[in-house]
Request: fold
Amino acid sequence: MSESICSIEQLSKYVDLSHEEMKKLKRVTARHPMKVTSYYMSLIDWSNPTDPIRKMAIPSLDELSLQGSYDTSGEVENTKLQGLQHKYSETALILATNRCAMYCRYCFRKRLVGRRETREIIEDFKAAVRYIRHHTEINNVLISGGDSFVLPNEIIERFLSMLSDVSHLDFIRFGSRVPVTFPSRCRDNELLDLLAEYSTPERRLLVVTQFNHPKEITKQSIEAVDNLIKSGVVVNNQTVLLKGVNDNPETLAELMNRLVGIGVNPYYVFQCRPVKRVKKQFQVPICEGVNIIERAKARCNGPSKRFRYIMSHKTGKIQIMGIVDNEVYFKYHQAKNRKNLGKIFKRKINAEAGWLDDFKLDRNKQKTLVTVHT
Reply:
């Protein structure tokens, strides 16, 4: 990681930048730092200005756009103590760090990732465990950030040791993109032995990673995934639908089919959130996204088409189901208000809408189609 590219001056060795471009990009990275591992840099085709790997990793002038919000999913309002969120009844989310091996330019936590100062990262892990222990409805914990696997092994072990004593937890998840951006981390025998110790047949550890493009599936990333699987870890994948990266059916289908082949379970495809400095460059309109997803699924096999197209909204995780008769149908896959769980609803088509809030609601005609009580 010490060899990572972290400045516009270093970047200028790879791509020609005018003095004005360097000046503007420095404004971007002053607010949202750049870091790209040497491994991930090696995946970029520098002769192609629209290379998808380049777009995900390298700062752009489009990041000067302030359209959107820095907290599109209501994370602040669901924070119960610093670094611990409890939005959905069964899940506690711990923000363990604001550091990553690489700072993805589409990150939905741009407000904190890579920044020198933040008050959103866990400070008192004992207090977090006490909260989880007290709330017996919590049956799983997601340790995220930032990237949880950039933490020192001793910190990861401390987290696992303390959480393993909470009897009502069924499993623990780690959110990490290091299998994709810094796969050599998953050759660390100390880390792998630690994961193997705590991932038991009775309570597996899960890693939620993020492959977004087939070019990210390399010999090194395959080895990283294989090492995690050999340690008893279940590996799931959450892709983000990104304009200019994977917003065509062929690319998305190839990604999902190959992921299943290497032992990674496609889990979600997320609608890109309308985050400041992200929305303009990366968000695909929802109606266009529905078309891409359905055409991609037509090219997928059974296991590779199990993923859901999801929008992580303030009110919950909303499945984007499809379009019928000029209306878009949605379903609450998860909900902050449990009364909404399973609820199916619809909105009139808006070709430009990239988020639920962009659709107009006719309150005289709108009704819940189906509600599943839980």
Q: What stands out?
A: The two ends are 46 Å apart (CA to CA). The domain at 76-358 is CATH 3.20.20.70 (TIM Barrel). The chain has one domain: 76-358. The chain has a mean pLDDT of 95.
